[in-house]
Specification:
Layout lengths: L1 H11 L18 H9 L2 H13 L5 H13 L7 H16 L3 E14 L3 E7 L3 E3 L1 E3 L11 E8 L2 H6 L1 H4 L3 E4 L6 H4 L1 H12 L4 E5 L25 E4 L1 H12 L5 E6 L2 E15 L4 E11 L9 H20 L6 E8 L7 H10 L6 E6 L7 E7 L2 H11 L9 E4 L7 H5 L4 E6 L4 H4 L12 H20 L7
Parallel strand pairs: 5-6, 6-7, 7-8, 11-12, 11-13, 13-16, 14-15
Antiparallel strand pairs: 1-10, 2-3, 2-9, 4-8, 5-9, 10-12, 14-16
Helix pairs in contact: 3-16, 4-11, 4-16, 11-16
Length: about 475
């Protein structure tokens, strides 16, 4: 009898290859099943692309961003401009007909740079372009006048520690990559203070410069004296380096009126298209609404925020409603270390099993090439298949690792994550500088970015099963 049963069982195997033998017909899908399911979205993907790139929504994300950036301007954490931006977006998302538009409160840092200037007094008078770094302390009211020591690395600073006491440290570190070089901005003041310096001036973290300082957040450490710190242009850093190499004495007068105030109330801004079948499950698209206090914050991160809004608008315009809820979050205080995102994570992590994927666009909206993705191999294969739907605009690549301060909290807990990958060749020309304006943005490139963001988020939100993790 047992042999008869074995023969019967073996006859069943071809019929159920790749499936578990259950009695309720709810068999796990094979990858071939998933590929076929994704292929079924070809027409919807084409409709999204046509509407975003060629149709009535063409240039809409650019035009919306232009009005916003020109009206509001830069949006530093704790500022009245950021408050105005949040109110603006709250109204705009409601007027767009999105669902569950609401604000989630966050306490955010409030730092203001005040008046600031630097002047080289020796070997000649020369006005140095500076931007104070976020959270920097002020100089005394009369300013600081001191001799300069120029170093190219922390190692050189430590080797010349005895020379640095009582001086202004100028870092002329070469730009290698943002991820590697940014440590001079974030740690430069602390390392200079450890060797007795009275201030630090950091060569801007930029791959190209037209005498443009680039600001950003920096961090003090407990038990290390807090000294004023600012960024200077690549040109001035290199000039002082040349002077120093020739043995020329350099003296600089620095005056900064920076001030830190108590934390201010702010908000993450949220809107949704509620899912039709699994409304409790979330596909999150996002960008950050805050910016630095220079330029217009159009590139960092107006573009990312507005293509994320555009994704919901395009889906609504096409009369689509995915099975899962598509949630837009516009983060506050990203530039200060993802403060709004951390609060959001703490508030919502109890529902982490319902977050299908978290997506953030925060590296420009230039010509897109694909997605950065963080997740397991099975999820990556599914995302690669989804990206084939974007062959009409030739944006199909999937890269290792999603990037995004605001989604890191979720990815660490194994929620799949995605970030837009685009042409970054000029991104750090404008990053955190007066040059971050609407002039940087290109409407055609934003159209393509919006199409990518919308196709990916919609298909993941509408597939029958969540991404594996």
């Amino acid at each position: 009898m047992k042999y008869i049963f074995l023969i019967f069982f073996m006859n069943l195997l071809p019929q159920y290859a790749g499936k578990s033998l259950r009695t309720d017909d709810s068999y796990p899908k094979t990858f071939e099943d998933i590929k076929n399911e994704i292929a079924g979205y070809t027409d919807i993907a084409k409709a999204i692309i046509d509407l975003a790139v060629h149709g009535k929504a063409q240039n809409r994300s650019y035009e919306r961003l232009a009005v916003f950036a020109d009206t509001i301007g830069p949006r530093l954490s704790g500022s009245k401009n950021l408050d105005a931006a949040i109110k603006y977006m709250f109204s705009a998302l409601q007027e767009d007909g999105l669902e569950n538009v609401h604000l989630e409160p966050v306490k955010v840092p409030h730092w203001e740079r005040g008046e600031e200037f630097a002047m080289m007094l020796e070997p000649r008078n020369h006005s140095i372009a500076i931007l104070g770094l976020g959270s920097s302390v002020a100089t005394p009211p009369e300013g600081i006048t001191a001799e300069v020591i120029v170093v190219a690395s922390f190692d050189e600073l430590h080797k010349r520690a005895q020379e640095a006491k009582g001086k202004i440290v100028v870092y002329n570190e070469p730009f290698i990559s943002y991820g590697e070089t940014v440590r001079y901005r974030s740690q430069g003041a602390v390392e200079a203070a450890k060797v007795g310096a009275v201030a630090s001036l950091i060569r801007s973290i930029a791959s190209f410069s037209v005498n443009s300082p680039h600001t950003g957040w920096q961090n003090y450490q407990p038990d290390v004296p807090q000294i004023p710190t600012a960024c200077i242009s690549v040109e001035d850093a290199e000039m002082m380096s040349r002077m120093s190499f020739r043995g020329t004495k350099i003296v600089v007068h620095l005056k900064m009126g920076a001030k830190t105030y108590p934390d201010s109330p702010s908000f993450n801004t949220v809107a949704e298209i509620v899912g039709s079948k699994y409304p409790e499950q979330i596909v999150l698209v996002s960008g950050h609404l805050d910016s630095w206090d220079v330029g217009q914050g159009a590139m960092d991160d107006g573009g990312g925020a507005f293509i994320s809004w555009e994704a919901l608008s395009l889906i609504k315009d096409l009369g689509l409603r995915p099975k899962r809820t598509l949630r837009l979050v516009l983060w506050t205080a990203e530039e200060q270390g993802g403060i709004g995102a951390e609060q959001y994570y703490r508030l919502h992590k109890e529902n982490i099993s319902n977050f299908d994927i978290v997506m953030e666009s925060d590296e420009g909206t230039f010509k897109p090439s694909g997605l950065g993705f963080t997740g397991n191999a099975k999820a990556r294969d599914i995302v690669k298949e989804i990206m084939t739907l974007l062959q009409p605009i030739n944006v199909t690549d999937v890269y290792d690792n999603a990037d995004g301060t605001d989604i890191d909290y979720w990815m660490r807990d194994r929620v799949p994550g995605a970030s837009l990958r685009d042409d970054l060749s000029k991104y750090f020309w404008f990053h955190h500088s007066q040059g971050d304006t609407m002039t940087v943005q290109d409407p055609n490139q934003m159209n393509l970015c919006a199409a990518v963001w919308t196709v990916v988020s919609y298909v993941i939100a509408d597939m029958e099963e969540m991404l594996p993790r």
